[in-house]
Structures are given as C-alpha cells and as structure tokens.
Specification:
With about 350 residues, the protein is α+β, with helices and mostly antiparallel strands. The protein has 12 helices and 11 strands. Helix 1 runs antiparallel to helix 5, helix 3 packs across helix 4 and helix 4 runs antiparallel to helix 5.
Length: about 350
C-alpha cells in the first residue's frame, strides 16, 4: 500500500473540507427556502408597501448571499476571508458566492416577493454548486482558494442548520426597501440620549415614553438609542408624521433583523454615499464584506437648534405638515405646535411656550 506524504494528506483533507463546507452551505440555503417565503411574506404583510413597488432581483440575490456574514460559527471566518481574497485571485469564485449585477435588470414587485424567492434560492444554490466544481476542478483556483488553510480546521463549519442566520441580510434589505416604498425615513439625533433629556430637571415639552429608561433592546417610546455612537433613532412617515412605529419596530427587531443593521446600517450607508440603493457597489470594502448598505433607507438628522419651519432637519428638506396647528385643546387661547412622533429638537427640549407642543 502506498504511503501518503504530509503533502498528500494536506491536499486530500482540503478537498474534503471544501466539499463538506460547500455541501452544508448548499443544504443551508435550501433549508432556508420555506422560512424565507414565510418571513418575507410576514414582513410585507406588516409593512404593507404599495403593491407596484419593485426590487431588482440582482440586489435581492446579493442580499441573500450576504447572509454568510451573520452565521455565528467561529471557524466560518476563514471561509469568509477566502471569499474576499478570491475577489483578487479567483474572480469567478467570488462572483458566484457574492453575486452582483447578475439577473440583468429583472425586477419583482414587493407584493409578489414571497412567491419569487424559490427561484432566487435555486439560483444561489446553483451558484454554490458551480463554485465547488470550479474550485476542485482547477488546480490554480484550488490553491488560491485554500492557500490560507481555512479548510483544515476541525470541526469544519456546518452551515446546513443556520437558515435563520442566512436570511438576516435578505430580510434587512427587504424591510429597508419596504419602508422606503411607504415614504418612511430614518431620523436621528446625533450626540443625543433621549432618556437622559427626559430625565433632566425641567423635563421636556411633552411625554416621550422615555422617562422610565430603555428596555433591554435600547428602545423607549418611538425611539432606539445606540449607545456606541450616542445617537437616538426613530422612523418617520413623511405622509403621516403622527404614525407611531413602536409596535412595528418591536416585531421587526424581534424576528428579522437588528436595529444596528437597519437603523445604524442606513446611517453608515448614507455616509458612503449609498442612500440610493447601491448595495452592490459597497458590498466589499478592502478585506471584509460590508453589510451597511443592506439598509439604504433615507436618513435625516434633526436640527437640534432650530425653531424655523424650514429647518426641521440639518440635511433634508422639512416634511409637509411640520409644525402644524393640530393639538387637542387650547394653549392659553393661542397657537399649538404639532411635531412628528419621533421628533427631537427645540420644540421638544426648549419650546418658546410651555404646554403648547404635542406629537399627535
């Protein structure tokens, strides 16, 4: 019987490892098929975007592919590194695993998205199978992809049961696009802790729901506080500024994505210049996969020092109806000021007349 050298074993185990990982990846995507249809259907039902609103299938495929980034398997980090390295060394491997600009300009309506996902999943499974064949069938591609030893770990990463994690990217993207289709923006107040403001002596012009502090997720009233950036976020419907998104945010962040991805991600995407939906353009940053632009809803920053009707935001036009007379009751017989549900600014923190501001 032939004696195997260390090099023979190295080659054989890498081939075995690559085959096992990609097979588990293929199964994981397949297992996510039914769950994806259920989750996306529930998202569409909850947010109820216009039926004719549409998305590019190519960006949906990219969002699905980004799910690798969210799998909580330590040994998978090596594979992700290999995928990014492959962008330079084996472009076709990268193109298959992180597809961008594929499916030409095909679109699907958001209302029909749940029924369209099966074809999307099958397309990505086909990509995975093609990638495995490319790696094991070409010596140069194999060496480039396996050169850093990420497939020698024991145990090998198993992706087959990670369906819920694989869908995080897709779900975040769909939620972001559905909100945008409903004319909903993300608002933020920089260097602002809304609970701390509500706790200060003298308080605020009206009750925000944050007087008692945040829940374990960082929420209070219509707000989410990001303590890593000292920023308070909310959602604002430009067509109905009195809409309270608290209950919908609770459902969204309990089931399908995180506030860091949807709210904080959108802010990072805007900083990259990706607010128009350029997920594909910003997916890869250096040696890492950048998931910020999975959420590309418009982000507007409250002008914290303005009482001017034309300066609601520091970086967006004022919305229709901002500072409208619509509060119940009278304000010493004078004019009342109705502001958006998630508003943070001088009418909340230092109004010209106390008792005359509401967010109904």
């Amino acid at each position: 019987m032939k004696n195997f050298t260390a090099q023979d074993f190295y080659l054989a185990y890498n081939l075995y490892g690559i085959n096992q990982v990609f097979n588990s990846f293929w199964r994981g995507i397949g297992n996510a098929n039914t769950l994806a249809s259920e989750n996306i259907g529930a998202i569409v039902t909850l947010l109820n975007p216009p039926k004719k609103a549409s998305m590019l299938l190519s960006e949906l495929l990219t969002a699905l592919a980004s799910g690798l980034q969210f799998i909580n398997v330590v040994s998978l980090a090596g594979m992700l590194k290999a995928v990014v390295v492959a962008n330079q060394q084996s472009p076709q491997v990268f193109k298959n695993i992180m597809p961008t600009g594929t499916l030409e300009t095909q679109v699907t309506q958001i209302s029909e998205l749940a029924s369209s996902l099966s074809g999307l999943v099958q397309q990505y499974q086909s990509n995975i199978a093609d990638t495995l064949g490319l790696i094991v069938g070409d010596i140069d591609t194999f060496l480039n992809f396996a050169s850093t030893g990420q497939f020698q770990v024991n145990p090998l990463p198993d992706i087959s049961s990670a369906s819920d994690q694989l869908l995080v990217g897709l779900q975040t993207y769909v939620i972001s696009r559905a909100l945008s289709a409903n004319n909903v923006i993300i608002t933020r107040a920089n260097a602002t802790n809304i609970h701390a403001l509500a706790s200060e002596e003298g308080g605020l012009a009206y009750t925000t729901g944050c007087e008692g502090g945040y829940d374990e997720g960082g929420f209070c009233g219509p707000f989410w506080y990001d303590n890593t950036s000292d920023t308070t976020y909310s959602l604002d419907n430009l067509g109905d500024m009195g809409t309270d998104y608290y209950s919908k945010m609770q459902q969204i962040f309990s089931n399908w994505t995180t506030p860091e991805l949807l709210l904080g991600g959108a802010a990072k995407c805007n900083a990259l210049g990706g607010s128009k939906g350029e997920l594909e353009k910003h997916l890869v940053q250096g040696t890492s996969i950048n998931t910020a632009c999975l959420s590309n809803a418009q982000v507007c920053t409250w002008d914290l020092d303005s009482l001017d009707v034309d300066h609601e935001f520091a970086d967006c036009p004022s919305q229709r109806g901002y500072i409208s007379n619509g509060c119940d009751g009278e304000c010493n017989g004078g004019y009342t000021v109705n502001v958006p549900k998630g508003y943070i600014g001088q009418y909340l923190t230092d109004p010209p007349v106390l008792g005359c501001v509401c967010n109904d």
